[in-house]
Structures are given as C-alpha cells and as structure tokens.
C-alpha cells in the first residue's frame, strides 16, 4: 500500500507541469513607434496609408478613382521639398498605367521641388497628397495592376544672407 501512495503522489506532482505545457500559448508582437522630430516631419494622418491602397475602376469614364491622403508637415528650420524615387505607374506585366502624384498641389517628378515654403512649414500645416491616373484606360488595359511609389521629402535649410 505504501508503494502505491508514493507512486500516486509523484504522478500528481509531475502531472500539472505536463498539463500546463500543453495549454501554453505564445504571441509574437511587433511594435513600432514613429515619434516625429520637432524640427522636421512629414507623415500621413492615417498611419495605415500606403499599406494596401485600391484605385477603383469607373466603367463609365474608364478612369481609376484617385487616392487622397492628408499629411501633417512641419519644418521649423526651412522649407520642404519632395520628389519621386523611381517610376510612378501601375503595371500588370505588359501594359503600364501612368500615375500622377501631387503633394500640396505640386505635381511631383524625379527632380526635387519645393512643396511647402519656409513660412508655411515653420508653424506646421496639413497638405494633401493625390495619386491619380489622368488618362482614361483603353479596352486593352485589363487585369490586376499593381505598383509601388516612393516619395522622398527633404528638409531644406533656411537660406540667410
């Protein structure tokens, strides 16, 4: 009888660790915090902007709906310039769709240009980015189109003479 009691006690002692190991769950959590510098920042109001945007096709006008996003802009020591880093089009593997990107009503290209002047950017402001396909699509332009666009914003220091 004594041997049976010891065996049962040992089993009861080990059993909870086996049971709890089977019930463990793990979750990997990736955390990012973007804290803007008080001198310069250009960031979209919607933190999810640019992750999975969709331009819907209008069959009547044969155009894609534009994307619009408001950005918070501030540079306390000068103006803000912007330019495109690479091509700006959607592509389905054989037929491109040209995209027009503007920021604060300035059409962007590969050359840096002023999008917010010194006086406006110093206190901070909101500016709109618009991405559009300005040319109606042809009947040959069908299928799934994708594209990646990179806009670079430069903090241009104030020029004092």
TrEMBL record:
Signal peptide, first to last residue: 1-21
Keyword Signal: yes
Alphabetic keyword roster: Signal
Keyword Signal on entry: yes
InterPro entries linked to this entry: Fimbrial_CS1-type
Protein name, as recorded: CS1 type fimbrial major subunit
């Amino acid at each position: 009888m004594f041997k049976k009691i010891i065996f049962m006690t040992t089993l009861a002692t080990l059993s909870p660790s086996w049971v709890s190991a089977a019930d463990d769950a793990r979750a990997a959590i990736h955390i990012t915090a973007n804290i803007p510098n008080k001198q310069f920042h250009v960031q979209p109001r919607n933190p999810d902007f640019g992750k999975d945007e969709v331009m819907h096709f209008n069959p009547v006008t044969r155009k894609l709906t534009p994307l619009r996003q408001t950005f918070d802009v501030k540079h306390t020591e000068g103006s803000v310039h912007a330019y495109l880093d690479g091509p700006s089009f959607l592509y389905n593997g054989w037929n491109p769709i040209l995209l027009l990107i503007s920021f604060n009503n300035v059409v962007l290209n590969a050359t840096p240009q002023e999008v917010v002047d010194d006086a406006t950017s110093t206190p901070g402001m909101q500016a709109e980015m618009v991405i559009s396909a300005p040319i109606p699509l042809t009947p040959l332009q069908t299928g799934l189109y994708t594209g990646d666009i990179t806009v670079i914003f430069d903090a241009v220091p104030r020029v004092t003479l």
